[in-house]
Amino acid sequence: MSYRIEFRDVKLAFGEKVVLDGISFGVRPGQMTVILGQSGSGKSTTLRLLLGLLKPDAGQIYINGEEISHMKEDDLNRVRQRMSIVFQEGALFDSLTVYENIAYRPRELGWPEAKVDERVQEVLDFAGLKDVADLLPGSLSGGTQRLVAIARAIVDDPEILLFDEPTVGLDPPTARMICETAVKLRDLENTTSMFVTHRLADVRFLASHYAVRDENNNVTIHDESNDLCLINTSFIMINDGKVVFQGTDEMLWQAEDSFLRDFVRGDEDLNT
Ligand SMILES: Nc1ncnc2c1ncn2[C@@H]1O[C@H](COP(=O)(O)OP(=O)(O)OP(=O)(O)O)[C@@H](O)[C@H]1O
Ligand SMILES: [Mg+2]
Fold first, then answer.
1. Among 1, 79, 125, 256, whose Cα sits 20 to 30 Å from the Cα of 100?
2. Could you tell me if the CB of 37 is within 6 A of ligand 1?
3. Which atom of ligand 1 is nearest to the CA of 37?
4. Ligand 1 in reach of 42 Cβ (< 6 A)
5. 59 and 11 Cβ atoms separated by less than 8 Å
6. Which residues 6+ apart lie within 8 Å of 54 measured at CB?
7. Euclidean distance between CA atoms 75 and 73, whole angstroms
């Protein structure tokens, strides 16, 4: 069984405070794994470990089969180049247009301008941002700014994309737009991703919708409804430093664990 991302018995404490007390999970290539857990349970910490920004106290972290926690900085940078992260705060450059924000990284990497333009156009189209390409981020809604942040994260075609609560604070239709983009990356680009969220509505959407591209290159999003379930999303929940659940949404809805039951029964408003 080969994983693109694997944590084996990873432990991390900040001083006296044990945040991760031996967590293990695997994410297969092209799969989306949604990370659930209360505030302070270690979700962002897990993503930072994956980026090599933190080192675990014990355990191993594998990316494409390579253990990263003992890697030299040069090797780690090579692995990091294949990953991108989308934060809640888009962290866009305010004085650059949407186009220039997205072109920033490819230009920094020294791509020829024709290739930069071709790829930026492709990504603008993918994220539905063509109409705002020449605007400054400050003139856009919060949701559109997050789409720009996603566009910027995917421009150099990362193998692994990390989302740290990309829907927090957004109204439901805008949050849905972000989830649709994540689903398109999963189903059309085969991106491996980890998606941190508190929102039950995100969980439902990511577990039940899939993207299709037709022969005219039009992309549509469908609800699996009664179709055969082939949706490539799995879920993990972290509680008290442990992975208390890993599995499909069907398993999540049926889980016995009281903590999980509270979450899946939770009042929608409490989870936004
Ligand atoms: N650099 C740090 N130094 C000390 N404590 C830290 C540090 N980073 C995180 N923590 C603590 O580790 C715990 C886990 O933090 P983390 O940010 O991973 O939680 P989270 O699950 O992402 O929460 P949220 O849903 O609020 O974003 C928290 O108690 C936090 O205060
Ligand atoms: Mg966090």
1. 79
2. yes
3. 21
4. yes
5. yes
6. 12, 45, 48
7. 6
Residue in 121, 126, 128, 223 with CA at minimum distance from that of residue 174: 128
pLDDT for 61-112, tens place per residue?
999 999 999 899 999 999 998 999 988 776 899 999 999 999 999 999 999 9
Angle at 190 between CA 188 and CA 195, to 5 degrees: 100
Distance 46 CA to ligand 1 centre (A): 10
- Reported for 8-14, long-range contacts at CB under 8 A and 24+ positions apart, including other chains, are 8/59, 8/60, 8/61, 8/62, 9/58, 9/59, 9/60, 10/49, 10/56, 10/58, 10/59, 10/60, 10/61, 11/56, 11/57, 11/58, 11/59, 12/42, 12/45, 12/49, 12/54, 12/56, 12/57, 13/57
20-38 confidence digits (pLDDT tens): 999 999 999 999 999 999 8
Per cent of the chain over pLDDT 70 is 94
pLDDT in tens, 190-235: 899 999 998 888 998 999 999 999 998 889 999 887 665 667 899 9
Please indicate whether residue 14, judged by its CB atom, sits closer than 6 Å to ligand 1.
yes
Does ligand 1 come within 6 angstroms of the Cβ of 199? no
Token output for 191 = 């991106």
Query: Distances in Å between the alpha carbon of 12 and those of 4, 9, 42, 54, 246?
Result: 22, 10, 9, 9, 20
Q: Counting ligands in written order, which one lies closest to the CA of residue 43?
A: 1
Residue nearest to atom 13 of ligand 1 (CA): 40
Could you tell me the distance, in angstroms and rounded to a whole number, from the CA of residue 228 to the centre of ligand 2? 34
